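Appendix C: a fully annotated inverse folding record. The material below is reproduced so that readers can follow the format used throughout the book. The structure is listed first as tokens, followed by the designed sequence.
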């Protein structure tokens, strides 16, 4: 029997993966690359920060991920930096 907390993390991560599918191709590519490098369920705080980013409009999120704008929140900026990392650098 699987640990209920681990199952909740897995479900939350799968929901985040689904919400990572974006209409803006550039975002879609950045987020796909992130998920390819992140096969495990996200930790609580990481998942919360990613949720906050994914509720943003595509163009606002792209401004952060492209480096044109700063998140202002250090925790959110850390997630932006993680999302921007090139393949193979985790």
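Designed amino acids, in order:
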């Amino acid at each position: 029997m699987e640990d209920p907390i681990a199952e909740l993390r897995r479900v939350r991560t799968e929901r985040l993966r689904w919400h990572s599918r974006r209409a803006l191709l550039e975002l879609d590519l950045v987020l796909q690359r992130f998920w390819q490098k992140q096969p495990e369920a996200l930790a609580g705080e990481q998942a919360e920060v990613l949720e906050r980013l994914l509720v943003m409009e595509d163009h606002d999120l792209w401004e952060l991920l492209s480096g044109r704008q700063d998140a202002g929140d250090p925790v959110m900026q850390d997630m932006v930096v993680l999302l921007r990392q090139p393949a193979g650098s985790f």
